Amino acid sequence: MRNQEQNAGREVLDSVFSNHPLYRLISGACTKYERELTLSDIRMEDFFVETANCLDEVKEKDNDPAFQEEICEGMWDSTWSRLSRKSQSINKDEINLATCVVQTLLIVCLIFSEPHCYLVEILMRTAERNYSSRREEILSAVQKFMWRYGEDSLRAWVSDFMSVDNTSYLSEEIASALHGEEEIVEEETSDGKYPPVKVRMKILGELLKECDLWTNNHDRTKVARLMSNIIGTSYNNALNNLNNGLTLNEKQHGKDIDNVNKVLDSLKSDLQIKC
């Protein structure tokens, strides 16, 4: 089943992102590492998805120096955790390698981004791992690919993507391609129609922020996983909408606030938190 989903996912990503500089780089330079991941069954498209997640996290906090150390400290561990959940078998060596591939791709992208404070931190954290020698090998493969095909398109994309005027998130684009419009589907209940799932999640994001859940990446990931199960949307959509929660008019969305409060109560119980 996992292989069928992977094949379908790759076909979609190949179609939608075939000309995307980062996707082209990963498919051209990192496919050979996919062949080493025989037990965990992590694929090239997982590299793309996880690199997007890391870039989005850096982008979100790029202008907040207080979060620099926190993000860089936890980047390897959060990537490792997400990749391990995608694996059919928890083979630590393979997941370490896959994590190293993702972190190296992140470093390459950040080379083209200003400022470079994250780059220095992540390089330091990665160098502390046992896979630092593989990082040099992966970095060399990526550089050779860029030398052959040019780096201008990747540089231009990273520069635009990380600019303050660009409010898009790559993981949202990927989720939209893989899952269609599921995040904006309305659900009908006995009380009538609720606002779209995306709106409900943003309201919930605000409520959860009041519970001070944003100080720990693990909590944020756990909340997103629970939300994806309870509300019925993809994990990436849950995490992105939590991170980008907006303050909405409570009168306008009164019915939905009641519904979200029920979900919040369930989450609070599962997480054993007080709000």
Automatic annotation (TrEMBL):
Source species of the chain: Prevotella vespertina
Name this protein carries in UniProt: Uncharacterized protein
